[in-house]
Amino acid sequence: MPTRPLLVLASGIFALVLTMGVARFAYTPMLAYMQTQTGMGDALAGWLAGWNYLGYLSGVLLVSRLRDLMLKDRLYRIGLVLAVVTTAMMALAESPVLWGASRYLAGLSTAAGLMLGSGLILNWLLRHGHRAELGLHFSGLGLGIVLGALLVELAAPVLDWRGQWWLLTGAGALLLVPAWRWLPRPDIGPPLAPHQVDTGNEPGPLWLWLLQGAYLCAGFGYAINATFTVLITEQQPALSGQGGLMWLLVGLAAAPAPILWDRVARRLGYLPTLGIAYVLQIIGILLPVLSGSPAAAIASSLLFGVTFIGIVSLVLTMVGLRYPAHPAQIMARLTLGYGIAQIVAPVVAGELAERTGTFDDSLIMVAAIMAVGLASLLAMGMLGDGRRRA
């Protein structure tokens, strides 16, 4: 691949590391330190995660109404700045209200980095005749988890929770530069070719509704693990003190996963590949319920890291292939359900954990929901295999 496409993809990677890895995912390893040093309870932790997802959902609703590429580009860049600002807000005071505002606005920045950034990059790739695969782009999510986890854990012996958030803010400011500079403005380059705006080969409405249902279910699986992996690990006696390590494993597994899933999808098709990802994630969700051993925790973390980002990457890439004329709008529609699940799941799980002292019931519930999503994928398979039509 020539240098130019690599630079464009790199801008998206840096944007995801910033808006997802720092502004969103750093909250997960920080939870353990904030609970210890500020007295934050599981319920508040869940509510703050819910506010983050509500901000994300608000951003997705906004994206779904946008048509002007130049406006999308401006809002994307505003989202990059917002990611840095909201990270700094977490360090300003020990205030649930301030933290809630930070998490909500960080959710808006996440929508900008994930939805707007992915759509702009996909548009650029299509206009310049490159393969419309986002696997390399989505590796930024896993790299963001790794970076956030490393910064949090390495700084923990010398910085308190406020200092850790300031360190993350500084890292975010550095990430902002390439994310901003390396993505060309959307008015630079040729327009889409006629075959790229043809809607005649788009799937029917039932196919899309089933995909939306499956992705909604995936949102539950993602939200529980993304919010509470560290706490689930720390609450098991044999794994005390290992929560940060488990979260780092999630990131290490997630970083190469989108590229690997792209390769599998080329051979098997997108729907069969998605089905495999759902099955593996269900197994990973249930492992901590079945066993409190380190081996089960490690396997669960690796399976979650490999599958959650694979599901996102496969679904959004498939949307780009099946709806080339307006991928951002379909991505936004699908992400509405995904976002609703992200609001509900951590709040319910946090409240259940507060009452029962364990996340087992929440994990069993989410595994059942993911099974429903798998059934939706199987139903889609009866309508078409999810490959790109000629």
Descriptors for this entry?
390 residues, mainly alpha, globular, disordered C terminus
Provide the fold topology.
Elements: H1 3-22, H2 27-38, H3 42-64, H4 69-89, H5 96-127, H6 135-155, H7 161-181, H8 205-234, H9 243-254, H10 257-268, H11 270-290, H12 294-322, H13 327-356, H14 360-381
Helix pairs in contact: 1-4, 1-5, 1-6, 1-7, 2-8, 3-5, 3-13, 4-5, 4-7, 5-13, 6-7, 6-9, 6-10, 6-12, 8-9, 8-11, 8-12, 8-13, 8-14, 9-12, 10-11, 10-12, 11-12, 11-14, 12-13, 13-14
Description:
- It is a single chain.
- The protein is mainly α and 390 residues long.
- The chain has 14 helices and no strands.
- Helix 2 packs parallel to helix 8 (205-234), helix 3 packs antiparallel against helix 13 and helix 10 (257-268) crosses helix 12 (294-322).
- Residues 194-199 and 385-390 have low confidence and may be disordered.
| H/I helix tally | 14
Indicate the percent of residues in helices. Answer: over 70%
In this structure, how is the largest beta sheet organized? Answer: none
Beta-strand segment tally = 0
Mean pLDDT: 83
Would you list the SSEs in sequence order as H and E? HHHHHHHHHHHHHH
Q: Strand-residue fraction?
A: under 5%
Distance between the termini: 24 Å
* Sequence stretches where pLDDT stays below 50 over 5 or more residues: 194-199, 385-390
Shape descriptor reads globular
Gyration radius, in Å: 20 Å
Classify the secondary structure makeup into a structural class.
mainly alpha
